[in-house]
Specification:
Elements (H helix, E strand, L loop, with lengths): L1 H14 L2 H19 L4 H23 L7 H18 L6 H15 L4
């Protein structure tokens, strides 16, 4: 049963535009952070670690010379990613800031202001 579900998910994911899939990643991260912000410490640590991995990937993608996005936009996203990293690693991270950034990234990828 698991293989059937995985195959169905894979087929569905291929039909969705990459931007939509990327927006979903940021939405999921925002949702996880929202749940974790008032949760147990281990939930917060996991949510922050997941968010950190997402943003490390984003920064790496923006630094890739083969990235087709305009250089100014890539630089802005790197700057935002660095701010997210600093906040994620803070002693008392501002979950509202992190949630807001992820929601705004999702909205931007969806083409919403």
């Amino acid at each position: 049963m698991h293989n059937v579900a995985a195959s169905a998910y894979g087929a569905t994911a291929r039909l969705r535009p990459a931007r939509q899939q990327e927006a979903d990643i940021f939405r999921d991260a925002a949702r996880t952070l929202t749940t974790a912000r008032n949760g147990r410490a281990i939930e917060q640590i996991r949510a922050l670690a997941d968010n950190r991995r997402i943003w490390i990937s984003v920064i790496d993608l923006m630094r890739d010379p083969a990235n087709a996005l305009p250089e100014e936009l890539r630089a802005s996203i790197i700057s935002l990613g660095m701010a997210v990293q600093r906040e994620t690693e803070a002693e008392a991270p501002d979950f509202e800031f992190l949630i807001s950034v992820n929601r705004n990234m999702a909205a931007g990828l969806d083409g919403r202001p």
